């Protein structure tokens, strides 16, 4: 962070690997539902199960992996998770080429990828904390956040064009290659990594699976933040399928208008992530965390008032721009705060528990809101989610963090 905020060669490779895999993921955005519909002739229930069931089962599979990662060097785990995701995704084009692709295979691939995603996030947070000094973590997380929004802006249009020219199976293959390139980039970061924490028991015990949740629930500031982010992310993501049904169905928007409504506001995330450090420097970490965490909850209720035509499109873009800008500031500050509050020998377990809970909550709420959308209509269900989101700021920490709970493996 000193001279030009240079974080070193090893972080540069880590950052490049992250950007490569993120771009590959967005290139293949929407490919799995298209494969299910166009290739396997799946119905609506099967398509819905791809995202909800795959994510939920993947989260369950990942539960024992957090404690397992904690007591191993993190860089080999990161490389292994990239290779696992690459191998799993490559089975799709292979199965398609051989005429053996099935819906069950699609579902199993999503389960493997979801579990590997959670494990990768847990290991990457722990690795980042050993790679950089504490004062550099916010800059690093802001760079990851800005990269995420940049790939969100450019990935779906490129992926849409690739799907149109080559088909959805080809974009899945491109996503697989991106994980291979990410693994090669991570391999280039090799250098000294502190030895992992030592486990007292020789083998993983059943009680060890809950260590991450125990730490989160015992910490007076991480606990409310944990519940806040799980509920907020779950409710926001649960409305996305309903908004697609509403905009592409009754309101008559074209697919390119629907894509534009979310691609353009992603610029707000890029701007917010670049301003996060300035805001923290001026106003303090705790104030930025709470204010942006509250502000992001105010926007989604506006989606209940979307109408047809250019006015409706501008309303969606305005709501998404405000929401994404607040998230662009909040996310890197939140990620840094979480790392600072978690002892080094507990980071992997804590981040794994956090990711498992968030992914499971999102899957559950998405399924529930699908039912509510069928009963109440998509507009009413979206409005209900927006009203509930207005209450999520009550779960934000009420005071600045005290000293962290002492670590004990």
UniProtKB/TrEMBL annotation:
<feature type="transmembrane region" description="Helical">
    <location>
        <begin position="12"/>
        <end position="35"/>
    </location>
</feature>
<feature type="transmembrane region" description="Helical">
    <location>
        <begin position="255"/>
        <end position="276"/>
    </location>
</feature>
<keyword id="KW-1133">Transmembrane helix</keyword>
<dbReference type="InterPro" id="IPR036259">
    <property type="entry name" value="MFS_trans_sf"/>
</dbReference>
<dbReference type="InterPro" id="IPR011701">
    <property type="entry name" value="MFS"/>
</dbReference>
<dbReference type="GO" id="GO:0022857">
    <property type="term" value="F:transmembrane transporter activity"/>
</dbReference>
<dbReference type="Pfam" id="PF07690">
    <property type="entry name" value="MFS_1"/>
</dbReference>
<feature type="transmembrane region" description="Helical">
    <location>
        <begin position="375"/>
        <end position="396"/>
    </location>
</feature>
<dbReference type="GO" id="GO:0005886">
    <property type="term" value="C:plasma membrane"/>
</dbReference>
<feature type="transmembrane region" description="Helical">
    <location>
        <begin position="102"/>
        <end position="120"/>
    </location>
</feature>
<feature type="transmembrane region" description="Helical">
    <location>
        <begin position="288"/>
        <end position="306"/>
    </location>
</feature>
<feature type="transmembrane region" description="Helical">
    <location>
        <begin position="47"/>
        <end position="65"/>
    </location>
</feature>
<feature type="transmembrane region" description="Helical">
    <location>
        <begin position="312"/>
        <end position="330"/>
    </location>
</feature>
<keyword id="KW-0812">Transmembrane</keyword>
<protein>
    <submittedName>
        <fullName>MFS family permease</fullName>
    </submittedName>
</protein>
<feature type="transmembrane region" description="Helical">
    <location>
        <begin position="225"/>
        <end position="249"/>
    </location>
</feature>
<keyword id="KW-0472">Membrane</keyword>
<keyword id="KW-1003">Cell membrane</keyword>
